[in-house]
C-alpha cells in the first residue's frame, strides 16, 4: 500500500509541474487563447487534484494540440517525465512534439 501511495504522489506531482509550466507559457498568449488556456488548465488541475492525473494530462495535451498552442522543449521533457511517473505510454502523445516552437 505504501508503494502505491508513493507512485500516486510522484505521478500527481509530475503532472502538477507540467500544468504549472504550461500555465507559465500561456501568459504570453493572446486574449482568446489565454481564455481557452485558463479553462483547459482549470480542468487539468481539477482532475489532478482528484487523483485523475492521467486524464488531466491526456486532456490537456489533446487540447493544446487542437488549438495549436506552441510549447517549448521543457514542456516535452516534463510531459515525458509525467508519463513515466504515471506509468503511461508517451508514444501515444508524441504528437505534442509538433507544437515545439
Summarize the structure.
This protein is mainly α and 101 residues long. The protein contains four helices and no strands. Residues 1-7 have low confidence and may be disordered.
Please give the structural blueprint:
Elements: H1 2-26, H2 31-49, H3 53-66, H4 73-85
Helix pairs in contact: 1-2, 1-3, 1-4, 2-3
Q: What does this protein structure show overall?
A:
By secondary structure, the chain is mostly helical. It has a single domain, classed as Four Helix Bundle (Hemerythrin (Met), subunit A) (Up-down Bundle), CATH 1.20.120. Helix content is 70%, strand content 0%. Helix 1 packs antiparallel against helix 2, helix 1 packs antiparallel against helix 4 and helix 2 packs antiparallel against helix 3. It is globular, with a radius of gyration of 13 Å.
How large is the count of helical segments? Answer: 4
According to CATH, the fold-level topology is Four Helix Bundle (Hemerythrin (Met), subunit A)
Mean pLDDT: 91
Give helix and strand order, one letter per element, not per position: HHHH
Largest sheet geometry: none
As residue ranges, the low-confidence spans are 1-7
CATH top level class name: Mainly Alpha
Q: State the end-to-end distance.
A: 42 Å
CATH architecture: Up-down Bundle
Helicity, as a percent range: over 70%
Number of strands: 0
Structural domain tally: 1
Strand content: under 5%
Q: Structural class given helices, strands, pairing?
A: mainly alpha
Oligomeric state of the chains in view: single chain
Shape: globular
